[in-house]
Amino acid sequence: GRHDLKVIKQLGANTVRLYGNNPANDHRSFLDEAQSLGLGVVVGISDYPYTQMPGNCMSTQHNCYQQIKESYLGNLRKGFVQEDRTYHPALKQVIVINEPDLKAPGMFAPRLFIKAIISAIDGMLGAEKAANVTGTLPNFTATFSFGTCSGCTAFGTVPALGQMWQLRDAMLNPKAYNYTPHFNLARFYRTRFTNSFNTANPAGDVEWMFLRPYESAFPMVPVVIQEYHKPFWNQTEDLHQILAIAQASSVLHGVSFFEFQVRYDKGGSEEDFGMFGLGDYALADFDYFGMGFKAWCLAPASNSETGEAIPQAVASAFGVRGPDYATLCLPDPAKVPLTEAGFGQIRAQREALRMAVLARRVVEHLGGLVVDATSLQAFAAYYARPSAVYSWAEMVSQIAGRPSWANWNNSAACVADRLSDAGSVGSAIGWVCGSMPHLDCAGIPPECRGSVWDTADFVFGAYYLLQSTQSPLEQCYFNGAAIYAASPVYLRRQRPPSMRPCIPTEPPATRTTTSTTTLPPPFAGNCSFGIQPPIPYFWDTGCAEAGGGAGCFADGQHVECRYCGSGPFVA
């Protein structure tokens, strides 16, 4: 990817606000990465269970308890909660719903969208109970628009405040809104609730139109601006002003600048908000649940009225220099393929520091750990010179010779590279199991079947140990899906870390391919699951090109149909 979280951190942020998510996807890696960068995460529940899915809560008289309980329980089980049943430390706040006053059903029916919110919160508490969550619990919030609610009981002419007042009334008196809660919503509101809203108004408007009356009505309830950005405005001045207002307020806890990337898919005025547009260089290709995409580089967007670079205005307000914008659309030494082509892209930049990043990656893919950064830098400088005659093969050969500036006694093993993505790792699993008939992928240990990463650790490790000659960059790379890593990397630094039982230490028993042990023929129709597998999967329509139906592409060891007749997906 592009290391978007790293860029966000370089802009001075301490938290990143997200929108809806798929509860079937695993979110642990994202939260781990945010945590490693010192970023908090504000997550949001998707609109899908509210307004889109069959049986959504608009069809159940705006009682969202069951739909949101099931959705949030999926989130808890897919990374929001850790193995010890505590919330992930990066998760700071949960948005129950974004702008319910515009869609659930709308501003014209405040009692209905308020009922949807309180029943959804009740469902989320039910999910926490079902998951036996313990420890410190994050605050929940409902993010309103900056519209006025003339139908609300109070503050009907104050943006967002009428909705907040109505919600507090419902949390304290839910039966008055035709809802009987399963949990004590009044106690929850007093101890775990934060108000929030979105606005495209400038700082002065926020202060006199909203904050002054809010501080009188809600002196003890914190509030956050989840979307803040007035387009065609002096962003540098306005951001300094809103941050000064927040610092002077006892209840306004912060703002989230809207938004990171231009939304080309929305078009029109919605394209006015992004800090970054897309450049003309693809940093990487990636697979997202059966569809291929390019990760285009980031190009700073500018304010068409003032000419100022929007991300730099944000960085200035947060008191930092910001990222090196000139490098955002250059081949990244942390991401280019470990090949002759990738090496050539970095050498063309003639920067020893960037070549050192590439060289460090090679060391780590050969099972080593750099212990002397100065010597690494001197080594890399030879290969960054414009007149350098040394080739990629020469550099790999030198590093494979185990120079003294790296440590090589690290119990290295071939494992899934957590810097890859689940789709690419799944593709590599399918290739290994489908192209190596002597490797019995049906024999993956049960404890390694819970995630694509654990499965890949076993499959890649077994494949590597079965090779007659072992060359990590040839037999433990799989286009970036695998790494021949030292034990400190795969047991501690990677997130999620590898589990020792899933890392083979000796070649596994092989099978003899006969007419009775060959894999089943290609699946010829759309397959379905009796029980949903606990690992990421997607439907791959490309199977039709190989004479099969839509294949389910999962972890390479347990699905109920085949992938294009060439993978290990046995019933």
TrEMBL record:
<protein>
    <recommendedName>
        <fullName>X8 domain-containing protein</fullName>
    </recommendedName>
</protein>
<feature type="domain" description="X8">
    <location>
        <begin position="412"/>
        <end position="504"/>
    </location>
</feature>
<dbReference type="InterPro" id="IPR017853">
    <property type="entry name" value="GH"/>
</dbReference>
<keyword id="KW-0732">Signal</keyword>
<dbReference type="InterPro" id="IPR012946">
    <property type="entry name" value="X8"/>
</dbReference>
